[in-house]
Amino acid sequence: MAPEDGITPISQLGYEACRDELVEVVQQLERGGLDLDTSLRLWERGEELAKRCEEHLAGARRRIEDALGSDRSDDA
Questions:
Q1: Does residue 55 sit within a domain?
Q2: For the CA atoms of 12, 24, 2, 57, what is the dihedral angle to 10 degrees?
Q3: Is 59 a residue whose pLDDT tops 60?
Q4: pLDDT one-digit tens code per residue, 3-55
Q5: Fewer CB within a 10 Å sphere, N or C end of the chain?
Q6: Which of 47, 25, 22, 54 is nearest to 38 (CA)?
Q7: d(CA 44, CA 37)
Q8: How far apart are CA 37 and CA 34, in angstroms?
């Protein structure tokens, strides 16, 4: 979806914003009653949001591992 649609590009969203929007997308899809095009658009957005959440979590995991690794090398 283009930024001119008033929707923030996923690449600019933090973890919490991605997660919250993903929850909203899932709820909309679960409620049903949407036409096929809208459902597909929401599903695609949800997939991208989930991917971005995973990227945020992987980055956080790397930072923790790096911090723990530097703590261990300081102790040696």
A1: yes
A2: 30
A3: yes
A4: 557 788 999 999 999 999 999 999 999 999 999 999 999 999 999 999 999 99
A5: C
A6: 25
A7: 11
A8: 8
Report yes or no on 1 lying in a domain.
Answer: no
**How many CB atoms sit inside 10 A of residue 53's CB?**
19
| Residue 5 within a domain | no
pLDDT score for 1 = 43
CA distance 76 to 72: 7
- Mean pLDDT throughout 55-68? 95
pTM: 0.80
- Give the up-direction half-sphere exposure of residue 49: CA atoms within 13 A in the CB hemisphere: 20
In sequence order, which residues have a C-beta less than 8 Å from that of residue 58 and are 6 or more positions away?
none
